[in-house]
Amino acid sequence: MKDHTGTFVKQVLDPGTWETKARHLLAAAALFESKIDEFWSDVRAGEGWKDEFVAVFFMLSAFALENLVKARIVRINRDTMEKDLRSEPSLPGVLNGHDLYKLFCLAGRTALADEEKSLLERLSNSAVWYARYPSPVRASGLGQKPHWYSSNDLPDIERLLREFGGG
Residue 101's closest CA among 77, 118, 81? Predict the structure, then answer.
C-alpha cells in the first residue's frame, strides 16, 4: 500500500488548499442566496417559517468560513503542526471541529461583538446539525436555537468571509 503521508501533510499545511475548498463551498452557497429573499418575503407575509434553504445556505457558509479560518490557523501554527503531522499524520486537533467561535479565537480574532458571537453560534449549529439532521446530535442541543435568523445575517456573513479572505 502506498504511503500518502507526504501528500497529506502538504495539503493540510497549505493554506491555499483550505481557501480553495472555501471558494467551492461559497459557490455552492451562492446558489441559495435568492432563497433568502423569498424566505423573508414569506415570513413577512405570514406564510410561516420555511427555512430549509436558508439552513443549507448557513451550513455551506459555515463550512466556507471554517475553511478560511483554518487557513489562518495553519499560517499561524504551521511549524508546530508540521512536526506533529510528521509523527501523527492525522488532522491536528486544532483544525478538528466546527465551533466557529473557538476557531476564531485560535485564529487570533478574540474581540467579538455579541452579535458576532450569536451569528457564529448559529452558523456552527447549522454546520453541526440543523441543516443536516432532523434533530441535534445530543438532546441538550434542543435548547439551542440555530433556526433563528436576522435580516442582517447575509451582510454580516459576507463581512466575516471578507475578513478572512473570502468573498
Answer: 118
Q: Does 166 have pLDDT greater than 80?
A: no
Residue 105 has pLDDT above 60, yes or no: yes
Q: Render pLDDT for 127-137 as a digit per residue (tens, 0 to 9).
A: 888 888 888 88
pTM score of the predicted model: 0.90
The label of the residue with cell 468571509 reads 161
Burial of 17 (0-12, 13-18, 19+ CB in 10 A): middle
- CA 62 – CA 122 distance, rounded (Å): 9
Determine the average pLDDT of the residues in 32-38.
91
Q: Please tell me the distance from the alpha carbon of residue 61 to that of residue 81, in angstroms, as a whole number.
A: 26
Distance CA 16, CA 105 (A): 21
**Are 147 and 51 within 8 A, CB to CB?**
yes
Binned at pLDDT 50, 70 and 90, residue 30 comes out as very high
DSSP string, 44-108: HTT-----HHHHHHHHHHHHHHHHHHHHHHHHHHHHHHHHHHHHS-S--GGG-S--HHHHHHHTT
